[in-house]
Amino acid sequence: MSRKTSLSGFHEWLPQERLVELHVLNTLAEVFELHGFANIETRAVETLGTLLRKGEIDKEVYTVSRIHETDAPDPDDTSRLALHFDLTVPFARYVTENAGHLAFPFRRYQIQKVWRGERPQEGRAREFTQADIDVVGDGALDFRHDIDVALVMAEALSKLPIGQFMIRINNRKLAEGFYRGIGLEDTAGVLRNIDKLEKIGAEQVAQGLQDELGASSEQAELALALANIRAEDSSFVTEVRALGVQNELLDEGLSELAEVIDELHKRVPGTAVADLSIARGLDYYTGTVYETNLVGHEQLGSICSGGRYDALATKGKRTFPGVGLSIGVTRLISRLFSHNMVEASRSVPTVVYIALTSDEDWSAAQDVAQQLRARGINTEVATKAEKFGKQIRHADRRGIPYVWFTNYDDAGTATHEVKDIRSGEQVPADPNEWFPPTDDLRPAIRQVDQLKDATPQR
Amino acid sequence: MSRKTSLSGFHEWLPQERLVELHVLNTLAEVFELHGFANIETRAVETLGTLLRKGEIDKEVYTVSRIHETDAPDPDDTSRLALHFDLTVPFARYVTENAGHLAFPFRRYQIQKVWRGERPQEGRAREFTQADIDVVGDGALDFRHDIDVALVMAEALSKLPIGQFMIRINNRKLAEGFYRGIGLEDTAGVLRNIDKLEKIGAEQVAQGLQDELGASSEQAELALALANIRAEDSSFVTEVRALGVQNELLDEGLSELAEVIDELHKRVPGTAVADLSIARGLDYYTGTVYETNLVGHEQLGSICSGGRYDALATKGKRTFPGVGLSIGVTRLISRLFSHNMVEASRSVPTVVYIALTSDEDWSAAQDVAQQLRARGINTEVATKAEKFGKQIRHADRRGIPYVWFTNYDDAGTATHEVKDIRSGEQVPADPNEWFPPTDDLRPAIRQVDQLKDATPQR
Question: S-S: A395 plus which of A98, A114, A353, B347, CB 3.0-4.6 Å?
């Protein structure tokens, strides 16, 4: 499963790989719907004005223009079209545009491609699929949705063939309250520096806090001490309290994060941790924030991130608070393939290949196929009566497990046999009754390797 | 279901409309897989060079460039990226790129958005979804696949909530052989004129044939006589023969078309017709061609078109013949909505809404939800113990059919009741056993109106 793509940063899967992706997408959709999320899709393009609404675009955006436009683009024209770079901004626009038609709190999931003109590298593609869930309220949104969306994602991820994962959760109120409590008022600046912790290490971050923000070495030390706290239950509250910082916003954040972690610890133990180093960089979150690592593949970065916004969208004086999480499906799947962690049992949906004894039998073979398909058995019919060996090889090459043979006697009466071409076993069969073992009905998606130290294959 | 979109030509559906679209897409995918078609997706962008390969681009293409490119585009630069305008050109590129990894004949289906910078009008959007099936061979492809793909599409369309449809089939060999047989050598020119028949009428077409191609009035009359022939079985062969034209290619085309029509007439009667006026304009088909009308909505144009290519793709001296059909899903669905032909029974996947008696019951309510979800029942939990009337109204507004109530006695023992909020009936229920009627399990997609003269609602 290792190929080069003809356009760097744009992945295309072979049919057998696509089956793995479809399995992932269908599993996600199923779990999201079990929890009452409704599906929508938004158009691929937004105006630059919409994309700019959240401030400067730090993403590399692809603009779109009709081929017959030959003038140089006007950088100040916000009505220009561009491909969306995430699903959050389009969703916010969709909510304000359709607010009159939606019932709040509105639970939606959205699985679509997004585009970014970034330098391609593993984990970063130019075209990739995201799977988002968000709950958005009209004016207010109960805090319990912060717990709910994490529970949904923990359930969804646990059903994927990806091995162990860990949702790391923090709270902006906790962090900002703490920084204020130790006298650091540029909380965005502190977050920006703390965000680099995994990349550049504690010493460099401490230096940055002092050089950039004028923090004292004690302040830098306390900020780093906070970022070092991790716990799978609310014991982190005692650890934070031990740092001796007093602040109302900190109290609120501690209480929220404790509630999230306690419920996750109870319902989905071993899949979530309070991790006070999580900052989520430049994004405009206002409460809970989430990142998720694939255990043993931490250097891949987060595969599922998100958080709470006090105002995901606004419409005049109306605000729509929201909380949600987004899975980077392409990032996840590329990793599964590059480390040979998963495979599909065959490259086609077909279960049965109907061989022809004579070219004239084609239409009669279609009748047999119809009988099998009527009972949900994916079936193909040969178009030519080549030698049986050749017909069997054709099925085998594509991973089709069964070949069907029909013989007609002089009176036109048919007798049927079906051959499992893996075992060679051939038995009489009735097209109205024969059914394959459940495992053969659909291509199986198998988790090949859960070892942490799996060697990359490309 | 009638709204304006904020960008003309770009449709976005409300959750309830999206359920209809999902039903259509899932039904198509299911039928395609029953017939052994494997799914792939190709990237949204191609180089202009690839899009130009089939000759001049007569479509309005959207080019794509990174936002930081500020120079005027170079119209001669074929490495520029553009959004694909159909799924055939990208599929041909995919086949040549991955030929070494595919087993031929390769049966694939592809359901994706495509983009065209056209002037928006009903039936023509700038972003729309296509659902394509193609079978492609390596060097050769048995003619029977021409019958097969039409059978698959007839079955797929018959499972959609769209009422009656008619697949109209012709054959390029038949038409070109006939034109040559009557002495008109510019067969492409004749086809181009015949293609306008429905738009401008027989008289204008006859005039065009004479003015543009120098045809005699007898030649024009014969070409039009051919285009007038329609039959649901192979009786059209006699009608063509009665026109007294002799040509080998014509013979071949007649025999192919008769074989297609006879098999369709036998297996899916009333859904296909030999229609010798079908030309498929500028497309480079070389045999069977297909168009499909929604009966009573003929002015919408074709909802499912395609044909046979001797060389869908080439790679050096290797050619890949193919035959396939493409459904214009967005065109079809827009029509269903604008004529109120179909509706979803609710806007959410949710079957059960668990009400809260007290705010403290939330986590216990999650346990109940988990029991229901474990048996495939889509369930949401209220976040606040508002008055029951308010909680019921919230469920009702979103079309959720059932509300679940749990009471805990002093010993903590739970008793459960479930209310059908349409009938008001409330009965005791066990979260490990209760199951909704099958009709309520998923949102139902109902065909509202099959009348031909349905009044458009927008």
Answer: A353
